[in-house]
Amino acid sequence: MATTRRAGLVDQVIEQLRDAVTQGEWPIGQRIPTEPELAGQLGVGRNTVREAVRALAHTGLLEVRQGDGTYVRATSEVSGAIRRLCGSELREVLQVRRILEVEGARLAAAARTDEEVAELKALLERRNAELREGHWEEFARLDAEFHFAVVQSGHNTLLTEMYRGLTEVITASVAATSNVTPGREYLPEIGHEGLAEAIADQDADRAASEACGFLDELLARVEQDES
């Protein structure tokens, strides 16, 4: 990280730390450098670093663990806020996904490019390969990446950025509804070929229906598990 200028020190340090997280320099779950180390790297006082860390912890980006250090909790403030609001409430996460993904699929069918269709199909093939091998973590990552690519294909910048902020909880929701765990089995037989085909055919209504259909099925499973 570059040495910060003297003006607006706290705000500048906040931006430096945020960039380190969002650009992957510090991945989720990693402990960030100590206050003295950051102060030395950035050329500011420890109090300035402490204020910046406190601000990012308040937004949910970082988590301060007394006596242990400060850890990366999310890749964006939006995602951090949703983690605090939703926690493990899988049903709520799926409900929000349905709101965003149904319209995202509709927009994608109307605005996608040929290159984006090819990317969707490639992601789907990789997702399915990981599914067949039982590689649940990679499957969940690629499934979430596929859904993000669908939303991105709609070329609505605001919707894309809102969805990007949900990356962690969406990946977690995929894992929770597909991984086989003791006492609860969410079998990952829900495919997305129909969704990809509807987008390729530029059939907006069918794309929205496909997106709504599988999310409704996942919600039904979760609600049944809760009852």
TrEMBL record:
<dbReference type="InterPro" id="IPR000524">
    <property type="entry name" value="Tscrpt_reg_HTH_GntR"/>
</dbReference>
<keyword id="KW-0804">Transcription</keyword>
<keyword id="KW-0238">DNA-binding</keyword>
<dbReference type="Pfam" id="PF07729">
    <property type="entry name" value="FCD"/>
</dbReference>
<dbReference type="InterPro" id="IPR036388">
    <property type="entry name" value="WH-like_DNA-bd_sf"/>
</dbReference>
<keyword id="KW-0805">Transcription regulation</keyword>
<protein>
    <submittedName>
        <fullName>DNA-binding FadR family transcriptional regulator</fullName>
    </submittedName>
</protein>
<dbReference type="InterPro" id="IPR011711">
    <property type="entry name" value="GntR_C"/>
</dbReference>
<dbReference type="GO" id="GO:0003677">
    <property type="term" value="F:DNA binding"/>
</dbReference>
<dbReference type="Pfam" id="PF00392">
    <property type="entry name" value="GntR"/>
</dbReference>
<dbReference type="InterPro" id="IPR036390">
    <property type="entry name" value="WH_DNA-bd_sf"/>
</dbReference>
<dbReference type="InterPro" id="IPR008920">
    <property type="entry name" value="TF_FadR/GntR_C"/>
</dbReference>
<feature type="domain" description="HTH gntR-type">
    <location>
        <begin position="7"/>
        <end position="75"/>
    </location>
</feature>
